[in-house]
């Protein structure tokens, strides 16, 4: 089932998500809905808070360089990343979007490599080492679980532009969302 995606300003996006303690059918249904919603959006990752559920769960779907699928769920993750690059942002290579800030893109430094660990739906350990855009996806989704939307990390000028866009669009308040497949918004 496709669920509405919350937009910046909804309280669930700005608080730390709770650890998953019950691995039951309700969690399986949530993950299934997250995949359906992410695919319809379309996106490469989606965290549970983005659909209004304050749990530490995210899904991802991003092919490797040879086009092989990399798709999964990580529950109760921990993440470590390499140091952030210094210097000027690369407007093309570091441009990022977000399904909870649809239609807008801003550049942000991210670590080039990450190690993410957690469990899957069967509570089996998951450990993934990633680099490049795949690493960026994990950092982005992990931030969502900590109540951080990527625009919260932007430099002053970009953050000002983001807040101007939100003011024009009527965002940055509770209860604003969009429905993939119905509303014509993309990140």
Automatic annotation (TrEMBL):
Removes the formyl group from the N-terminal Met of newly synthesized proteins. This is Unannotated protein. PANTHER family: PEPTIDE DEFORMYLASE, PEPTIDE DEFORMYLASE, MITOCHONDRIAL. The keyword Signal does not apply. Keywords: Hydrolase, Metal-binding, Protein biosynthesis. NCBIfam families: pept_deformyl, PRK00150.1-3. SUPFAM superfamilies: Peptide deformylase (SSF56420). The keyword Hydrolase applies. One of its GO terms (biological process) is translation. It holds the Pfam family Pep_deformylase. CDD domains: Pep_deformylase. One of its GO terms (molecular function) is peptide deformylase activity. Belongs to the polypeptide deformylase family. InterPro entries: Peptide_deformylase, Peptide_deformylase_sf.
């Amino acid at each position: 089932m496709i669920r509405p995606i919350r937009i910046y300003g909804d309280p669930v996006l700005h608080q730390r998500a709770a650890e998953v303690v019950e691995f039951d059918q309700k969690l399986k249904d949530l993950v299934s809905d997250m995949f359906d919603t992410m695919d319809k959006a379309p996106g490469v990752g989606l965290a549970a808070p983005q659909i209004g559920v304050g749990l530490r769960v995210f899904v991802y779907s991003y092919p490797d360089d040879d086009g092989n699928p990399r798709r999964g769920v990580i529950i109760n993750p921990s993440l470590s990343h390499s140091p952030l690059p210094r210097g000027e942002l690369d407007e093309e290579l570091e441009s990022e979007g977000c399904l909870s800030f649809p239609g807008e893109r801003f550049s942000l430094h991210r670590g080039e490599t990450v190690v993410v660990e957690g469990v899957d739906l069967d509570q089996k350990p998951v450990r993934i080492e990633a680099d490049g855009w795949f690493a960026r996806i994990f950092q982005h989704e992990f931030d969502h679980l900590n109540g951080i939307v990527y625009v919260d990390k932007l430099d002053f000028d970009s953050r000002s532009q983001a807040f101007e866009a939100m003011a024009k669009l009527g965002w940055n308040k509770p209860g604003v969302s969009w429905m993939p497949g119905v509303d014509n918004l993309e990140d």
